[in-house]
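Open question from group meeting: does this chain pack into something compact, or does most of it stay loose? Before anyone orders reagents, we agreed to write out a predicted structure and look at it together. Recording both the input and the output here so the notebook holds the full record.
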Amino acid sequence: MPKTIAKTGYAPPPPPGATEFKNARVALLATRWNVEVVDRLLAGSRRCLAEWGVADRHVREFRVPGAFELPLAASAVMRQGRYDAVVALGAVVRGDTPHFDFVAGECARGLREASQRHRVPLGFGVLTVETAAQALARAGRGRDNKGYEATAAALEMVRLLRAVDG
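Structure tokens returned:
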């Protein structure tokens, strides 16, 4: 019998009143493609930031044409050194051509490279799905919203890097 895998892997938010992340600076990069889905991911991300105690004045949102452009935008934002974390949000829906494979793969690779090069935590909230219905299902209102999960992962990495750096 196969093992059951937890549906979510993020840590719960800090308790109310915790100040660990109140001064954390976060950049949100959101694509203009599949805007209905991306706006829902953005709402999940902002909900996470609020629950984790990140002050709204420390959050900056940038719109990017599409997922392929996310790596350059992330690299530019990270290079500035103003942000403790970056969250990339988008949705790439498979179509009838190989376009999906190129865009999704290069987006993921470029974002990983930017995060490693600049040593800035990155929340990967770029959906790669077969259908628009799958994308909408992953952008719901609860904590299983992938924008929420990507943001929580980025904040956990901020915590980890702070611990490692002392």
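Observations to bring back to the group:
The chain is about 45% helix and 15% strand.
The first strand starts at residue 26 and ends at 31.
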